[in-house]
Design brief:
The complex is a heterodimer. Chain A is mainly beta. Helix content of chain A is 10%, strand content 40%. The N terminus of chain A is likely disordered. Chain B is elongated. Classes of the chains: A mainly beta, B mainly beta.
Chain lengths: 396, 303
């Protein structure tokens, strides 16, 4: 080695000074530092039934772990064996393989790759002896209570299938507790079907709506469903209301105004216009589900009116459409096209009213001087009425 | 005839209620599972909404009980007809539980669960639990108020020495399931948090109801040492890392301690240097040093 090569040797550390980041260090040394996750704590075991034990613990590793291994042994003299693994951040486990009247010991540890934490504390439980079968409907409550049954853990095998009629080829949106869970397209006859699966037991509010070919939104169809055990619930004959629009926002008294919309094909339509004496008119939808009726306004008094419609399908009558306002006056003024976006509540301009808009309104709830866009009822502060208006225009 | 048809293909679906419009009144009912408890025995109180045919989308209520006669043990807002809480039900030492929330799209029903709570009688005697005030707004796009009948119930607490008549009350269900999965969203708006990025989140829990949320921001190149602790949070939540280079974890915890954690990956993760890039840079540095060395030697030779 000549003098020039020796001169370069001291330069090697400079490379490390130039690249202080961990990745550079890894290249130079080939060492990867892995921090073992912290051990879980507060491990508890509770018997759900003679054959089921619910386990829970505290995750102390900030969800840096890949998961937890759950171990069990039978009796004090038994040997621990892994009975299950949970995912990141999941600090509960149900042991479904227990036997009645048996003492078990449980513990858990977190892991990241093949690096394991220390074990949690140990929890023991003795499963109860078999008892009489629980009542078929454990939550019905008022049955006199004898026997003291148990409440099984919630199932995740619940399914709800919803079928009904919308408009030919229209998009049907299904919301569950205000959150969009499914969109489906109706067939040429307007029939639609959708299934939502794998949600826990409980009470849910379902909310369906569709839009017609011109972007008008139907009246929402809402219903609650309560499920207490794993089941498939079929909800059928959901008949979404027709849409309604008018060609004139102001019509000269005596001139006709076209009232139109969409529903299922070839269905009788009943149009109702409020007046001193309410006016009813009947028509029938076409093969594409559209309908139109020219109303003679000479029978309407001057001023504001509202038109709405309902459709008939076999023995079913839909709910009323969204009300469409118009005025009988001295001139004909064309109506604007159907609004593509919700008229109110769409604070972030994405043509939807959903959790984001709710959170934005909640931000201004109780704060002084909210911007005018959040004052849906025109009052100077955000109040419950603003939330109600937001909920009305909800799209999910 | 307005109707929809329901059938249950398997299992025991307990109930499914369908309702049609409409009238202009509502009732908030209070029922208890045992109106003659003994001191020390808990009483479950259910607060339900009967819209009496109307479609309602917002409910606000204040439920009261005498704090010297009862101790509030637990609140359960799981399986509520209220999908989003403006103010989730929270009890106070003065014996008040306030709540407000919305039901998007409206709710029509005669037995919509709003929430329930458990009271433990502290002394014998007759006490009244009541809805002290309430507002129910119609789902009409205007927020029109519906007239509301306020429910109440009298509880006659027996002294502890009195034997319990009949069967003991059924223990309330124990919730072992975590809140439902959800998807937090990163948003920004000039009117919210001065235009800074914030996080939006909400979920439901069919068992005991969501108790609270926690947020953890972890730099995408972070090590364990750089982790901060979880922060109890409400939506919208102002993000600490406005560069959006952190992974965000949101934990929803129910009233029984079950929780679910969801992750929002960093929008702009820190760029990690790949090995070849580092090797190339190292070679460039070596060449630069060599050139500098040669240049300085030649300069010395010239001088």
């Amino acid at each position: 080695m000549n003098i020039r090569q020796w001169y370069l040797v001291p330069l090697v550390p400079l490379l490390f000074l130039a690249f202080p980041c961990a990745e550079a260090a890894n290249i130079a040394t080939g060492v990867t530092i892995v921090v073992a996750p912290d051990a879980p704590s507060n491990f508890t075991a509770v018997p759900d039934s003679p054959t089921q034990v619910a386990l829970s613990w505290t995750d102390n590793s900030n969800d840096l772990e890949d998961g937890f291994n759950v171990e069990r042994k039978t009796g004090v003299a038994g040997t621990y064996a892994v009975i299950g693994t949970t995912a990141t951040g999941v600090a509960t486990y149900v042991d479904n393989s227990a036997s009645a009247n048996t003492t078990y010991f449980y513990r858990a540890r977190a892991f990241t790759g093949n690096i394991y934490s220390l074990y949690s504390n140990e929890a023991s439980v003795t499963t109860p002896s078999p008892v009489a079968p629980p009542p078929s409907n454990p939550s019905s409550g008022g049955g006199g209570g004898g026997g003291g049954g148990y409440t099984p853990p919630a199932s995740t095998n619940n399914n709800v299938t919803i079928t009904g009629w919308a408009y030919p080829l229209s998009q049907v949106t299904i919301l569950q507790n205000g959150v969009e869970v499914l969109q489906t397209i109706a067939g040429p006859s307007g029939v639609f079907s959708g299934s939502i699966s794998d949600f826990p037991n409980g009470a849910y509010n379902f909310y369906l709506y569709t839009t017609d070919a011109e972007g008008r939104k139907s009246t929402p169809f809402t219903f609650p469903v309560t499920i207490t055990t794993g089941a498939t619930t079929n909800v059928s004959n959901v008949f979404l209301a027709p849409t309604v629009g008018v060609d004139l926002q102001e019509v000269k008294q005596g001139d006709p105004i076209a009232i139109f919309g969409q529903t299922v094909p070839s269905a009788p339509i009943r149009i109702e216009v409020d007046s001193v004496v309410p006016i009813f008119a009947d028509t029938t939808s076409t093969a594409s589900g559209t309908y139109s009726y020219d109303l003679d306004t000479s029978q309407l008094e001057m001023g504001s009116h509202i038109a709405k419609s309902e459709a008939i399908l076999g023995g079913l009558i839909s709910n009323y459409s969204v009300a469409q306002a118009f005025t009988v006056g001295n001139a004909n003024v064309a109506a604007s096209a159907a609004a593509v976006c919700p008229a109110k509540g769409d604070f972030n301009g994405d043509c939807r009213v959903n959790l984001v808009d709710f959170s934005m309104l909640a931000y201004w709830y109780g704060r002084p001087k909210p911007p005018a866009i959040y004052l849906l009822d025109g009052k100077p502060s955000v109040d419950f009425v603003d939330f109600s208006i937001l909920a009305y225009y909800w799209t999910g | 005839m307005k109707k929809i048809l329901l059938s249950y293909s398997a299992g025991a679906v307990s109930s499914l209620f369908l309702f049609v419009a409409c009238a202009n009144a509502a009732t908030i009912n209070i029922t208890v599972d045992n109106d003659v408890p003994v001191v020390g025995q808990t009483v479950q109180v259910d607060v339900t909404l009967d819209t009496q045919g109307a479609s309602a989308n917002t409910v606000q209520a204040e439920v009261t009980f005498p704090p010297d006669a009862f101790r509030l043990e637990k609140i359960n807002d799981g399986s509520s007809a209220v999908s989003l809480w403006i103010n989730p039900p929270v009890g106070s030492a003065s014996g008040k539980i306030d709540l407000a929330g919305i039901m998007p799209g409206g709710f029509i029903g005669s037995d919509g669960q709003i929430f329930s709570f458990e009271l433990r009688p502290l002394s014998s005697g007759t006490s009244t639990i009541q809805v002290a005030s309430a507002t129910v707004l119609a789902n009409d796009g205007l927020g029109s108020p519906l007239s509301v009948d306020l429910g109440s119930v009298a509880i006659n607490v027996d002294p502890a020495t009195t034997s319990i008549s009949g069967a003991p009350p059924i223990a309330p269900p124990v919730d072992y399931s975590a809140p439902n999965p959800f998807t937090p969203q990163i948003e920004s708006d000039s009117n919210i948090f001065n235009g800074e990025y914030f996080l939006v989140f909400a979920t439901t829990d069919s068992g005991s109801g969501v108790d609270h949320y926690e947020v953890l921001e972890v730099p995408s190149n972070g090590s364990a040492q750089s982790f901060s602790s979880w922060h109890v949070a409400t939506s919208p939540y102002l993000l600490t890392d406005q560069g959006l280079s952190s992974d965000i974890y949101v934990r929803a915890v129910d009233h029984d301690g079950n929780f679910i954690v969801v992750k929002v990956p960093a929008r702009y993760p820190y760029k990690r240097w790949d090995h070849w890039t580092l090797l190339g840079l190292a070679i460039l540095v070596v060449i630069a040093v060599l050139l500098l060395f040669i240049w300085t030697r030649r300069r010395r030779q010239h001088t």
